Amino acid sequence: MNAIEQVWARVAAQKTLLPAIYGGIDFDRDPERFTHDPKAAVVQERAPNGVAVTDEDLERVRAYTMLGDVVTDAYAMLMPKYGFRTLIELLQIACDRGIEHVADAPPELAALIHAMEQTPAWVDMDLVREGAGLSATPPRTWRPTPCAAPSSPPSSTNIPRCQWRSRARSAMKALRAA
Q1: Three-state DSSP class for 139?
Q2: Which long-range contacts (CB under 8 A, 24 or more apart) does 144-150 make?
Q3: What is the pLDDT at residue 6?
Q4: Where are the alpha helices (DSSP H) in the chain?
Q5: Residue 158 has what pLDDT?
Q6: Rg (CA), the chain
Q7: pLDDT of the residue at 92
């Protein structure tokens, strides 16, 4: 089964996993704003930014457009029982202190927390760590400032502004080249 077929299988499974929301949806119909006719498309350019859009790309978009979020929707369906505000409070407690701190936590909340804790296979944790390191640079590197020497002797945390900007520029160049 190829990747698009896997998405379509997940789309079809929604009917049985959460029939109250997805049971009445005809997933064989095209999404409302989807078209196979390039002349009717909002974006006429079939190669935006020089990247050609293939029929496989369009089918992937069509499939993902029909894919909901069964885990989150199941939690949202608890609103009639708990109320919106209570569901938000339970979610905040579970996120801040752990699901074990939610008294009588509904299984839908436990499933949502579990789903949020999973790292998708496509996430490159090395890039995440690199990005976290770059975002830890002082805010003064984010806008043009005159190159001024620090008021105290240089250290690893006290580097002249122009050096911080230079380091930030070098890091951004390295990211773009990768």
Answers
A1: helix
A2: none
A3: 94
A4: 3-17, 19-22, 55-65, 70-76, 79-82, 84-97, 107-117, 125-135, 161-177
A5: 47
A6: 24
A7: 95
Query: Are 41 and 27 contained in the same domain?
Result: yes
54 plus 12 within the same structural domain: yes
- The answer to whether residues 79 and 104 belong to one domain is yes
- Whether residues 90 and 58 share a domain: the answer is no
The whole-number pLDDT of residue 43 equals 66
CA distances from residue 61 to 15, 66, 117, 178 in whole angstroms, order as listed = 20, 9, 26, 27
pLDDT of residue 170: 62
| Total residue count of the chain as it appears in this document | 178
CA-nearest of 70, 69, 71, 103 to 89 is 103
Q: What is the pLDDT of residues 128-160, one digit of tens each?
A: 988 888 877 666 555 554 444 444 444 444 444
- pTM of the complete model beyond 0.70: no
- Residue 75 sits in the same domain as residue 18: no
Other beta carbons within 10 Å of 109: 21
Determine the structural domain holding residue 96 and report its residue range. Answer: 71-117
Please tell me the total count of domains within the chain. 3
Q: Give the orientation angle of helix 84-97 with respect to helix 107-117, to 10 degrees.
A: 50
Q: What's the pLDDT score for residue 58?
A: 83
DSSP letter at 155 equals: B
